[in-house]
Amino acid sequence: MCGMKLTYTNKVALVSGAGRGIGRAIALELAAAGCKILCTSKNPSSCGKVAEEIRSSGGEAEAYPFDVSNPAECKDACVKMLKDNESVDIIVNNAGITRDKLLMMMSDDDWESVISTNLSSCFYITRNLCRAMMFKRWGRIINLSSVSGLAGNVGQANYAAAKAGIIGFTKSLSRELAPRNITVNAIAPGYISTDMTAVLPESIKKAVLDAVPLKRQGEPQEIASLCAFLASDQASYITGQVLSVNGGMYM
Ligand code: NDP
């Protein structure tokens, strides 16, 4: 980046799923860059610990535990966040789950829970926060999609549908919100080392790694670096994009 320093002037960033993995790395990165972080996760101790970690290293953070798949909980949490803070300038919709199964074995609950946690959550959170963002005429919305949303994946019809939905959501919103100087982008990670992928069977891990030209898993920090760039003042002319961070994996 030619020595360019990324800037974030008095920004407040909500990171969903900030308790672990990619969300935690994003929260720590944005906090180190000077943003105040609103850490959210389902489990209070999960986001609470990360908020504490940020505060103890001199940053600003608060924890807001809530279930992103529940529209009423999203609304209450967003109202509280807007009451406690002057604005929420950056939204990182990162919380997600998998319930991998072949279609014939997939239950209604496997489908509903993955769609609501990964996709509907982006709608619930963004809708509740974007009026204030529009009023301020500055904003960054970054949604976590996946290589599965771009290419599909055996055993992930629910997850791939949610992650592909996030791409449509991102592109539509980027057009709607552009006149208010709000950018909306998606990041599509490949195979990243987190709790989500740690549980995969060894045979699947090997098959996925074989498909990665860089021959290793990505680290959460490698997603956080791109997210921090997209959230910065310097990324002001990037919107409606899906950026892959996948070690060269075919999409
Ligand atoms: P992790 O499983 O490590 O962490 C998921 C986070 O989401 C946790 O903090 C969890 O909360 C939170 N979360 C899950 N369900 C809910 C819910 N209902 N309400 C509130 N918070 C919830 O996931 P990753 O870090 O691996 O993944 C982060 C994002 O990146 C996801 O959207 C995932 O789909 C996407 N991604 C990941 C890839 C990978 O290889 N890891 C590849 C492509 C995309 P809690 O801590 O309380 O449990």
Write the layout of secondary structure elements.
Layout: E1 12-15, H1 21-32, E2 36-39, H2 44-56, E3 60-63, H3 71-84, E4 90-93, H4 108-136, E5 139-144, H5 147-151, H6 157-177, E6 182-189, H7 195-198, H8 202-210, H9 220-231, E7 242-245
Parallel strand pairs: 1-2, 1-4, 2-3, 4-5, 5-6, 6-7
Helix pairs in contact: 1-2, 1-9, 3-4, 4-6
Spell out the key features of this protein:
binds NADPH dihydro-nicotinamide-adenine-dinucleotide phosphate, seven-stranded parallel beta sheet, globular, single chain, 7 strands, alpha/beta, 251 residues
Structural features, described:
This protein has 251 residues and is α/β, with parallel strands linked by helices. Helices cover 47% and strands 14% of the residues. A 7-stranded parallel β-sheet has the order 3-2-1-4-5-6-7, sandwiched between helices. Helix 3 (71-84) packs parallel to helix 4. The chain starts with 11 loop residues before the first strand and ends in a 6-residue tail after the last strand. The mean pLDDT is 97. Residues 17, 19-23, 41-43, 46, 67-69, 94-97, 117-118, 144, 146, 189, 191-192, 194-197 line the site of NADPH dihydro-nicotinamide-adenine-dinucleotide phosphate (NDP).
Number of strands: 7
Cofactors, ions, other ligands: NADPH dihydro-nicotinamide-adenine-dinucleotide phosphate
What's the total helix number?
9
Helix content: 40-55%
Distance between the termini: 26 Å
* Strand order in space, largest sheet: 3-2-1-4-5-6-7
Order of H and E elements:
EHEHEHEHEHHEHHHE
Radius of gyration: 17 Å
Q: What share of the residues does DSSP label as strand, in percent? A: 5-15%
Largest β-sheet summary: 7 strands, parallel
Mean pLDDT: 97
- Based on Cα principal axes, name the global outline: globular
Low-confidence runs of at least 5 consecutive residues: none
Structural class by helix and strand composition: alpha/beta
